[in-house]
Amino acid sequence: MKSLMLLGTAALTVLAAVLVVATRDAEAHALLARADPPINASLRESPTRITLFMTEQLQRSHSSVQVLDSGGQRRDIGETEFSDAVPTQMSVRVLRLDPGVYTVVWETLSEVDGHTWTGSYVFSVLNPDGSAPAGSGVVVDLNRPGPPVAADSVVKAIGLGALVLFVGAVFMSALLRPSPMATLMPLMSLAVVVGLAATGYEAIAGALRLGDFGFLGDVLFDSRNGLWLQQRWYALILAALILSFCMLRSPPAERGEMSRSDRGGRSLLHILAVLAIAWLASTAAISHGAAIGSGWIWGTLFDALHLAAVAVWIGGLAALLIVIRSNPESRIQSVRRFSVVAALLVPIVVAAGLLSALIQIPDIEGIVETDWGTAFIVKLMLLALLFAAAAANAFLLRPRDAAASGSDPVLVRRFSRMMRAEVLLGLAVIAVSGVLTQLPSPASAQPEVEQKDNTIVEMVARGEVVVSLEISPNLVGFNTWTATVDAPEENPVEVMLLRFRYQDRSVGPVTVATTKLADGRFQLEGAYFGLPGEWTVEMEMRRASGNDLIAGVRSNVESGYQASPFAADRGGALALPLTQMDWNGVGALWAFLIAALAWLNRRQIRARWGPRGGDAAFVGGVLGLIVAVVLLTGLHVEPGRTLANPVVRTEESIERGEALFARNCVSCHGEQGAGDGPLADTLPAPPANFTVHVPFHPDGVLYAWITDGIRGTGMPAWSPQLSDQERWDLVNFLRASFDISAAQ
Questions:
Q1: DSSP for 513-540, written as a single string
Q2: I need a surface site. Which of 3, 310, 312, 460 has the fewest CB within 10 A?
Q3: Is the pLDDT score of 576 beyond 70?
Q4: DSSP class of residue 295?
Q5: Residue spans of alpha helices (H) in 176-295
Q6: What is the distance between the alpha carbons of residues 730 and 713, in angstroms, rounded to a whole number?
Q7: CA 577, 580, 584 angle in degrees (round to 5)?
Q8: Which residues, at least 6 apart from 184, have a Cβ–Cβ distance to it below 8 Å?
Q9: Helix axes 149-175, 316-326, angle to 10 degrees
Q10: pTM to 2 decimals?
Q11: 154-158, 594-598, 629-633: least confidently modelled range
């Protein structure tokens, strides 16, 4: 019992630290992947329907879309509609919209994890002459009902801690001989009670996020998340009944350790093991990995492996502390048996955790710019400390303790303290993992379209007055114009008007007053760039005395969105969910893991199964390493390598490809194909230099890259926009223009 109190104190300490991380604002993350019409779009005509594509599957009964005009009146008609073919899509029809600014407000309930989210965006319908309309978007209250994120995170951390302790206790009961199941029953019972309470909280919190307790039935019976909560609840109730039966069957004073001949006890232990697996499965099934869409089976599997390995390692170590305290004489033998298992688990923790992290982090910005990334960094630091403590125990204190045969009390105390420190650090990792489950991961917040940023700053002088105008993001739609004026103190600029003129004079000019800020700055926000093309922004400055001044700035404005390199759906539930590596890389990682496990544990295998076992481990380690190297270097087959070009490389085909190249490719790859286009610096990876790549790849590979895009780069899939003929015309142009040998 004292050990349980120590573990409880450690858990409370960890949860106090979790509160610091969890109180970060999580509502800044949008779960809108893309919209039609797009965010901040300026439309010449009224749309008939608003369609949203979210990042997770939607629970239809509690997901909706509304469209509000500048006065806050709804302009949508009918109910929100959903698509059976695209479970992340919802749409609503709208009345004919007059020129103005409109706000789309959406609310979603995730089918997978039960989280509710709200958000909004604006678009505008232009005046008949193409000028920007009057009005602005509606300020919408996006606060979500229900418990705060911090409370959800703490309860999730407590639930994960209970799962870890239960799995560890069941595992140690099966590993050690004689089985310490009777000794570990209080720990299992406590974990089950806490798990029941945490599961109940998750269901009630989900109902409160929807409004009140009356939605509890909707949470439990109308969503995938609720079905898994039910499964966990049934498993925990059955575990509670089994543990109650065991504890009532024999009083504590008469309860002994379970021997090999106790068939009834072993059968109950097997049932508890199945229930532990069910608890693990129900947790992994509503994780971030299960919500990724394409490849969700692998995402769920990686999360389950990572969680199971951590649970057996940390939970088993916590159970081992209790066993040792109740029976100090068994310390050396119990630690030796557990150490072998721990040595096998640590590489699995690392490999599965790495794959899970790569799924959720499509690019480095996902770590440095999100709350999820902050919590993930904290988890990595705690993992580093945990591995350091585990290494000290495995390679320093445990061998010395075994050599002394427990006769050195100082060494025993040090070893025990380090084991407790390892458990505490493990619980800290679990607690931060609870925070991660409640925050949108970078992958779930990754939009399918990303806004460009063409911000410009132009400086103009008019006599003694110098004005600097910043236009951000300098795109079609909503922008911010900030003018910083340097004028004499005795004759400052008091008022500034901005006049917007389009290159097509049929679009009437619009004059708008700015807001005066501190330090001689004036600012304006709005959708005054309604069309792509050249705009002139005239700044009319009215001074305290003397003549007014007018200064103009010209800007080439373009449409503001580009496809995200991580947006393409790569297939079904069994597709590769990673953008940073292919299947060869995944296979190489696990081959290397198996090789490392065989190599590091060859001595234990030799001791258990003799010289042949040791030789087999040595050979297995070498073969695993060879397989990893071959997968990384020798079996990479570029897509399309065997695909023949069906379009003859004629002058007509090359000319058509040249026109397509100028229209679609120059912005990234540059006019000379050197990868130096105007958008090159905005991409997650530099665009390909065609003079380097084209000569070394066959036509089929170039065609496949154009068709499907390239994961982890800014190269999108062009198959939806270009026909087969057009893509082969592009290939012919690339071959004729950038492959000298082929051109000759």
A1: EPEE-STTEEEEEEEEE-SSEEEEEEEE
A2: 460
A3: yes
A4: T
A5: 181-210, 216-221, 224-249, 263-284
A6: 19
A7: 80
A8: 169, 172, 173, 319, 322, 323
A9: 60
A10: 0.71
A11: 629-633
Length of the chain: 744
**Separation CA 424–CA 418 (nearest Å):** 10
The span from the first CA to the last CA of the chain, in angstroms, equals: 84
Contact 537, 500 (CB under 8 A): yes
Give SS3 for 185: helix
Contact 157, 15 (CB under 8 A): yes
Rounded Cα gap, residues 154 and 22, in angstroms = 8
> How many CB atoms sit inside 10 A of residue 691's CB?
15
Q: How many CB atoms lie within 10 A of CB 542?
A: 13
- Return the beta strands (E) in 95-206 as ranges: 100-109, 116-125
Whether 75 contacts 68, CB under 8 Å: yes
Place of tokens 């003859």: 648
42-43 vs 116-125, strand pairing mode: parallel
Nearest to 283 by CA among 444, 87, 59, 112: 112
Q: Write down the number of H helices and E strands in the chain.
A: 21, 19
pLDDT at 22: 43
Bond into 509 cis (ω within 30) = no
Question: Per-residue pLDDT tens for 111-152?
Answer: 877 778 888 888 888 888 777 787 777 887 777 666 677 788
CA 225 to chain centre: 18
Record the tokens describing residue 455, joined without a space. 């911000």
CA distance readout (Å), 324 to 235, 320, 331, 438: 29, 6, 5, 36
Q: What would the mean pLDDT of 300-319 be, rounded to a whole number?
A: 92
Residues 6+ apart with CB under 8 A from 375: 21, 432, 435, 436, 439
Q: Three-class SS string for 661-720?
A: HHHHCHHHHCCCCCCCCCCHHHCCCCCCCHHHHHHHCCHHHHHHHHHHCCCCCCCCCCCC
Top pLDDT among 466 and 681 is at: 466
3-state SS record for 308-348: HHHHHHHHHHHHHHHHHHHCHHHHHHHHHHHHHHHHHHHHH
The CA-based diameter of the chain, rounded to the nearest angstrom, is 105
Instruction: Give the residue carrying structure tokens 């995944």.
Output: 586
pLDDT in tens, 144-201: 666 677 788 889 999 999 999 999 999 999 988 888 888 899 999 999 999 999 999 9
**What's residue 544's pLDDT?**
79
With contact defined as beta carbons under 8 Å apart, do 485 and 549 qualify?
no
Going by the DSSP 8-state scheme, the letter that residue 558 receives in this structure is: B
Encoding tokens for residue 65? 């879309």
Q: What share of the chain is helix, strand, coil (3-state, %, to 5)?
A: 50, 20, 30
Rounded Cα gap, residues 628 and 501, in angstroms:
62
Q: Which amino acid is at 96?
A: R
Burial of 681 from C-beta contacts in 10 A (0-12 / 13-18 / 19+): exposed
Is residue 288 a contact partner of residue 277, using CB atoms and an 8 Å limit? no
